[in-house]
Structure formats: C-alpha cells, structure tokens
C-alpha cells in the first residue's frame, strides 16, 4: 500500500508543478506564444496589444491579399483573444 508521501509524489506534485508553470504568464496559442505572434510583450497594456492586432489584421485581411489567408486570419484572432485574457 502506498504511503501518503508516495501519494504526494505521484499525484499531487505533478499537479502543483503544472499550476506553477501555467502561472508564469506565458500564453500559448497552439504551439505559438500569443505575445510573440502579435509582436508584443506580456507587460504591454491592452491598448498596445489591440493596436498591434489591428495592424497585423490589416496586413493579413483577405481583401488585401491575392492569395487566400483564411487560416492566418483565424489564428491571429485566436492569438488576440488569448493575449487579452486577464
């Protein structure tokens, strides 16, 4: 039978490590860091993040492109939403 120490090591410790790593401020959109893809830092305010998103959205907007970029636009919207989460 497992002792309380082993229970902690096998179950609770990995959960605690996951919570600590999740609280580091890094926000991921799939495999990409949302802040990196928007070319902002996590310390920037929401106004700057929105401006960066709008600039990038204008560049990738389907009406301005000759080739279909629907996937890039969807990913950009996802990155904005996750980066602006409190």
From TrEMBL:
Q: Where in the cell is it found?
A: Membrane
Entry-linked InterPro entries:
DnaJ_domain (IPR001623), DNAJC25-like (IPR044632), J_dom_sf (IPR036869)
Q: Does the keyword Calcium apply?
A: no
What biological process terms from GO does the record include? Answer: protein folding
Give the J domain ranges: 33-86
- Specify the superkingdom: Eukaryota
Give the UniProt family note. Belongs to the DNAJC25 family.
Name the UniProt record assigns to this protein: DnaJ domain protein
Taxonomic classification: Eukaryota, Metazoa, Spiralia, Lophotrochozoa, Platyhelminthes
């Amino acid at each position: 039978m497992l002792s309380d120490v082993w229970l902690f090591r096998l179950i609770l410790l990995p959960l605690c490590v996951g919570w600590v790593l999740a609280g580091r401020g890094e926000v991921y959109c799939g495999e990409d860091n949302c802040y990196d893809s928007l070319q902002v830092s996590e310390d920037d305010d929401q106004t700057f993040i929105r401006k960066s998103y709008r600039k990038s959205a204008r560049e990738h907007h389907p009406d301005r492109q000759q080739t279909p970029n629907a996937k890039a636009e969807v990913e950009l919207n996802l990155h904005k939403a996750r980066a602006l989460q409190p």
